[in-house]
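Case study B.
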Amino acid sequence: MKTSRRQFLVRFAQTASLFAAAINFPRIVWASWNTKAFTAENLNGAIAESYGDLPIIDSDALKLKAPSIAENGAVVPISVKTDLPVTNISVFVEKNPSPLACRFNIQPRMTANVSARIRMGETSNLIVLAEADGKLYRTSQEIKVTIGGCGG
Amino acid sequence: MKVKAKVKKGAVVVKLLAKHPMETGRRKGKDGKLIPGHYITELEGVHNGERVFQAELGPAVSKDPYLAFSFTGGNTGDTLTMSWLDNTGETKSTDVAIR
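Model:
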């Protein structure tokens, strides 16, 4: 069978795209980073972009461990732990230029117990929100910062 | 990326240190110009083909991010793969054997 130029081009394109797909096929599918939530410039905006208007409940079941005074705002160690069936945990620093610091999406085999080191520009409230059963659980703590972590 | 994964009380406890400048994009260099933002946006852990950790990070995470988490169902000798993606599209993966 003779292949016309058109057929050849179409087949070539199909094969090429197949190859491209095979090569680019990611071993890991990166989730979409929530740009709007991470660039929101105030706490309410960051929460709204992350969670919409889910009801927020203050809860002791969400355990936050953080220093009350952080000598160096560039490295503030925090850890969050809960027995609630949460699907994600977000950490906000109220007075940072972009309040959302990080968000952990809890995977089926992952335990809701995470630690990180974050930056704080100045003394501020640290707010942790965790989503479970369509509700948001909140805990917060004020952290005094002696040296800011966002300046130059 | 330095990763330590250890079985402890039936769960795998993972501690990791990713080497990354985590430039916020708000800092000024010596020439007075803003240093462009350069930070890890996503970090993932995969064990036995299944995702066991996923975090979205912002520029407010400290330089050379340290993170700790734990997951169930891992055994000594298994491989855990940790990977990050930054805002410039660069990625890095590290395989570590669970101890």
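The two ends of chain A are 70 Å apart (CA to CA). The remaining cases will be described in the next quarterly update.
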